[in-house]
Write a structure and sequence with these properties.
Elements: H1 3-20, E1 29-33, H2 39-47, E2 52-55, H3 58-67, E3 74-77, H4 86-89, E4 95-99, H5 102-111, E5 116-121, H6 138-145, E6 151-157, H7 166-184, E7 195-197, H8 204-209, E8 214-217
Parallel strand pairs: 1-2, 1-8, 2-3, 3-4, 4-5, 5-6, 6-7
The protein binds pyridoxal-5'-phosphate.
């Protein structure tokens, strides 16, 4: 495993995909998902120049956060969050990617000491096993969440089925972008909706082609 080479290759590929889609490479931020690895390896990855780190579980988030405190990093929590754990973590998180219920939003509102930048997780593909709101309910959900003034909805997050074809991926990701644009036009208070968190190791080129502004990449760094 050569972390520096993997990092360089991933960043170059993301930049190339952005440019091929007529976008600036600065429009897309690479988030390194360190859930597969220990804090020592995560630190080595940070030393290659990665600035955005993500974990999907609260306990592992806190471990990495503690271990890497001396670095100037942006911290992402990307997995589903149990309400009873919100108080342990939410004020340390720069971006929370998995807002998937109004009850969770209420708990974040209760515990937040400052605005929390959140992505609304949307289940575009309609897969049963996936978390996230249905496309048809997002409108009403945003209205409900608007009453929580600590929650800033920066964008939408979605995950595609692992077995999706390239065509299906393009459809899911472009639908996510269309939905985001639609919701943004409502000009809801504290909901800028400029960002799209989508794309992982296996599908990030297609996500970037279709408007992703944050890609969450794990395994490709550690192979
Ligand atoms: C693990 C994980 C990723 C990264 O997945 P890879 O396929 O390893 O790149 C992205 N998003 C979420 C929510 C994850 O849990």
């Amino acid at each position: 495993m050569n972390l520096q080479a993997n990092k360089d290759r991933i960043f170059q590929e993301v930049a190339a995909c952005a440019q091929a889609a007529g976008r600036s490479k600065d429009d897309v931020t690479v988030i390194a998902v360190t859930k597969y690895t220990d804090s020592e390896t995560a630190e080595k990855l940070v030393q290659t120049g990665v600035k955005h780190i993500a974990e999907n579980r609260v306990d592992k988030f806190l471990d990495k956060y503690q271990a890497l405190q001396v670095y100037d990093l942006t911290w992402h929590l990307i997995g589903s969050l149990q309400r009873r754990k919100v108080k342990d973590v939410i004020n340390l998180v720069d971006y929370f990617h998995a807002l998937d219920s109004v009850k969770l939003a209420a708990e974040i509102q209760k515990r937040a000491e400052h605005d929390i930048k959140c992505f609304l997780q949307v289940n575009i593909s309609g897969e049963e096993s996936k978390h996230g709101f249905k496309v048809s309910e997002v409108d009403n959900i945003l209205e409900e969440i608007q009453k929580f003034d600590k929650i800033k909805v920066v964008g939408l997050m979605t995950m595609a089925p692992i077995d999706a074809s390239e065509q299906e991926l393009a459809k899911i990701f472009s639908e996510a972008n269309a939905l985001r644009k639609n919701l943004k036009e409502k000009n809801l208070k504290n909901m800028p909706l400029d960002e799209l968190s989508m794309g992982m190791s296996g599908d990030f080129p297609i996500a970037v082609q279709n408007g992703a502004t944050f890609v969450r990449i794990g395994s490709a760094f550690f192979k």
